[in-house]
Every structure is written in structure tokens, then in C-alpha cells.
Write a structure and sequence with these properties.
Radius of gyration: 39 Å
Keywords: Coiled coil, Membrane, Transmembrane, Transmembrane helix
Organism: Sinomicrobium pectinilyticum
Structural class: mainly alpha
Number of strands: 0
Helix content: over 70%
Protein name: YtxH domain-containing protein
Number of helices: 2
Shape: rod-shaped
Order of helices and strands: HH
Distance between the termini: 92 Å
Pfam family, one: YtxH
Largest sheet: none
């Protein structure tokens, strides 16, 4: 439920309570009877507001829970993707290292051959 919907419902309930209160005050009843009606209407309105509050609270908790699950899922997916990319990078670096080792071994062999030719 959006924040505007909650505000609208609260405004309607408040307006209904005020309207009922004014209606009771202008009714041609004795003071005791009028106070009893006001008290009953106030309790009824309080119950309605509490009911709406619990409903809104439950909906917000559900949305928060869903948002948390979605966030955790996306985080896990992102971490998994990053792990695969890190593995790819490591494999590429290991391949480069092997290539460099092979070139180094060839250069050392060539250098040894040059030194051997010059000493002969």
C-alpha cells in the first residue's frame, strides 16, 4: 500500500469521526446519552484505525521482506558473476605467465648457445 493510500484512509477515518462527533453534538439528546454515543463512536474509530494500522504494518513488513530477499538474490548473483570473472582473469594471467616462462627459457637457451659459440 502506498503512503498516499494510507494517508487517504486515515483522512477519511478522521473525517468520519469528526462528522459523527458533530452530528451527535447537534442531536437533541441528553448530555449523558450524547457522551455515551461519543465514547462508543471514539472506540469504534479507534478500532478501525488500529485495524488499518496493523494492515498497513503487515503490508510494509511483507514488502520489506520481499525487498530484502530480492537484494540478497541479486547480491548472490553479482558475487557469483564476479567469482567467475575472477577465475577467468586468473586463468588468463596463468596462461600469460606460462608464455613468459617459455619465452624466458628460450632466451636463456639462446643466450647459452651464443656464449658457447663465442667461447669455442
Amino acid at each position: 500500500m502506498s503512503n498516499k493510500t494510507g494517508e487517504t484512509i486515515l483522512a477519511l477515518l478522521t473525517g468520519a469521526a469528526i462528522g459523527a462527533g458533530i452530528g451527535i453534538l447537534y442531536a437533541p439528546d441528553k448530555g449523558l446519552h450524547t457522551r455515551k454515543k461519543i465514547k462508543e463512536q471514539a472506540k469504534k474509530t479507534q478500532k478501525e484505525v488500529e485495524k488499518q494500522l496493523h494492515k498497513t504494518q503487515s503490508q510494509l513488513m511483507g514488502k520489506a521482506s520481499t525487498a530484502r530477499r530480492n537484494f540478497e538474490s541479486k547480491l548472490n548473483d553479482t558475487l557469483s558473476d564476479m567469482s567467475y570473472k575472477a577465475d577467468d582473469i586468473l586463468l588468463a594471467l596463468e596462461q600469460k605467465l606460462e608464455d613468459l616462462r617459455a619465452k624466458n627459457a628460450k632466451l636463456q637457451k639462446d643466450n647459452e648457445n651464443k656464449v658457447a659459440k663465442t667461447t669455442q
